[in-house]
Amino acid sequence: MPDSPLTEDYHAQTATRRHIPAHITFWDETLRDGEQMPGVHFSSEEKLAIAEKLAAVGVEVINAGIPVVSKDEEAMVSRIAHAGIKANILAAGRTMPGDVDAIIRSGVTHAAIFVAASDVHLRYKLRMSQDEVVKAAVESVKRAHEAGLHVAFVTEDTTRAPMDFVERLYLSVLEAGADRLVVSDTVGVMTPMTFRWFLREFSARVHPKDWSVHCHNDFGMATANTVAAIEEGVNAPHTCVNGLGERAGNTSFEEVVMTLESLYKCRTGIKTEQLYELSTMVEKYSGVPLPPNKALVGYNAFSHEAGIHTHGVLRNSLTYEPLQPELLGRKRRFILGKHTGRAAIQEKLREGGASHSDDQLARLTELVKTTEERRGKDLRNDLLRRYHIEFEQPGLKDAEFWELAHQVGIERGKPA
Ligand code: MN
Question: Are 339 and 363 in contact (CB under 8 A)?
């Protein structure tokens, strides 16, 4: 029997079409984009603990936040920068002198300077011309570079921007001293095939040596797009633990790591056996529950209930598991319920050191199935109801907002 889950390794057939860098630098966005997820806010202690854990797992770059946001945010970034964490601590800012100065003051070694690149952002958000954007970008990158910072230059909405402008902008900041270039699929409109085309075009025009992608999951393709980017030679992908982030979230860290490790046999340097611990830590501090069916770190990712599956896994886990749960620091579970078969009950009895007859086994199997079925869904319905109250509208409820408005003397009038 083969001991690899890839009993026929078709990935080997496409290996020559991949240009995966020998060294992948993971750039974590959990504390920045992850925290921008509606209803999520981390305390200073929680941010520190997450940053320490990320470094322990092997993440090399940690975005600690945007210091110009507030005095508190600047203090928090500074605290992380001076905590002796064994990773490169990064802070972000817009292409404005005040933003860059706040990054410098915070004491980080790495800066990410960002500006939008698409026409829709330039016209409606920035109200700047392309020339003005290039000028502001060059000046800010220079300012950060001259202060001795490692500078990443980021454009928002790169994948909806004119390629000629993208080329001009990135070539200008490279000349101004940018060390790393970040391409963003800010509203998640790429597909793996189109993104590979886009990045090939970008690469042919700009010749990046050190580059990142920042992907969003609006169409559920953030991980696929990020893996496609790595196949095109992108060496410093942005990821968020559990795929947290704005709207539908960012690329999920654990998914990219395990795709590279388990499917492509790349060594990422990430301590994968700590991934589940990291995920549950971020689940706890963010207050965002892991969906049961979340890839790799969801509760059900290594759980089996159906009789046919359980039977197969008990014979050999390769039958219905694409990777060993221990790789992520997890354990396989067999769930007793409506779909349970004899094999699982027999295994349970064996673990419990109980001897039994065939007839007893058959009767017990029937009892287990019906007991779970009859239990009803009261608990689950109650949890769902509470989940909806909390997560359908995170943040302040409407009534709370108008109460606060009332405190400053504003009263509700006719609806707009
Ligand atoms: Mn983002």
Answer: no
Span 136-157, pLDDT tens digits: 999 999 999 999 999 999 999 9
CA 15 / ligand 1 centre spacing (Å)? 30
Tens-place pLDDT, residues 202-236 = 999 999 999 999 999 999 999 999 999 999 999 99
302 CA to centre of ligand 1 in angstroms: 30
Q: Tell me the mean pLDDT in the region 330-355.
A: 90
Question: How much distance in Å is there from the Cα of 91 to the middle of ligand 1?
Answer: 14
Q: Which two tokens stand for residue 70?
A: 């507030």
Å from CA of 101 to ligand 1 middle: 22
Q: Looking at residue 1, what is its pLDDT?
A: 44
- Grade residue 3 by pLDDT with cuts at 50, 70 and 90: low
- What separation in Å is there between the alpha carbon of 290 and the centre of ligand 1? 20
Q: Rounded to 5 degrees, what are φ and ψ at 55? A: -65, -40
Tell which residue, 179, 95, 174, has the closest CA to residue 132.
95
| CA of residue 62 to ligand 1 center, whole Å | 14
In this structure, are 198 and 326 located in the same domain?
no
Q: Is 185 inside any structural domain?
A: yes
Q: Are 305 and 337 in contact (CB under 8 A)?
A: yes
Residue of 140, 153, 159, 150 lying closest to 61 (CA atoms) = 150
In the chain, the number of structural domains is 2
| pLDDT above 70: percentage of residues in the chain | 99
Write the CATH number for 66: 3.20.20.70
The pair of three-digit structure tokens given for residue 196, joined into one six-digit string: 């590979």
- Domain match, 134 and 243 both: yes
Task: Report the separation in Å between the CA atom of 276 and the middle of ligand 1, taken as the mean of its atom positions.
Answer: 23
Asked whether residue 143 falls in the same domain as residue 214, the answer is yes
Residue 354 shares a structural domain with residue 311: yes
Q: Which residue has the tokens 């409506």?
A: 338
Q: How far is the CA of 38 from the centre of ligand 1 (A)?
A: 13
Containing domain of residue 104, as a range?
18-286
Please tell me the distance between residue 33's alpha carbon and the centre of ligand 1 in angstroms.
5
- Both 98 and 150 in one domain: the answer is yes
Provide the mean pLDDT of the chain.
94
Whether 372 has a pLDDT exceeding 90, the answer reads no
The residue from 286, 321, 343 where one domain ends is 286
